[in-house]
Amino acid sequence: MYKITELQFVIRIILSTRIVEVLADALVIKSDKFLVRRIDHLQVLANTNLELPDVVGEICSVQGYDLQNDAATSRIVVCLLFEPTVTVNVSLWDEAASAFRGLLRAGDKSQSVMLVTSVNPKLFGGNLYLNSTQGTRFFFDTTLPEIAEFVSRV
Asked: Which top-rank group of organisms is this from (predicted)?
């Protein structure tokens, strides 16, 4: 899977590429780099399939998951508060829904700020929706700069 990014470097793997362990001191590549977009950017990206942005928001509600009965559905809808008056539904499908169910089982995250990666923005009937992809991951760590910035704005 490919993701368009604003980075100045690109790693391409072709047939003649060899991957070998580097024993000497080497440049350290951060394992997590997020490209968080705000609501106005998401609306521009909607239906273009040009980029799978990352988003940060506060969880308003979770639909499609029964906390009492541990029901396993293939779709969970998470309502995220992006700004004081802007909420967007994020549809989590299959593996992403399963991963999110696991996070809910691990503890109550219903009032948490969450960073969601690799979402696909779509416009339906003038409303913005975000759909999970195979690359979608969830982060609740308040020490992440992206989450800390969101918390300081709200």
From this structure: Eukaryota
- Cα 3 to chain centroid, rounded: 13
Domains defined for the chain, CATH in brackets: 39-153 (2.40.50.140)
- Name the burial class of residue 142, with classes exposed (0-12), middle (13-18) and buried (19+) by CB atoms within 10 angstroms of its CB: exposed
Rounded Cα distance between 11 and 26, Å, is 16
The residue written with tokens 């559905």 in the block is 73
Phi, psi dihedrals of residue 54, rounded to the nearest 5°: -105, 150
Between CA 65 and CA 72 the distance in angstroms is 7
pLDDT tens for 30-85 read 666 788 998 889 999 999 888 889 999 998 888 876 544 445 557 888 899 988 88
pTM of the model: 0.72
Residue 19 amino acid letter: I
The Cα diameter of the chain in Å comes to: 56
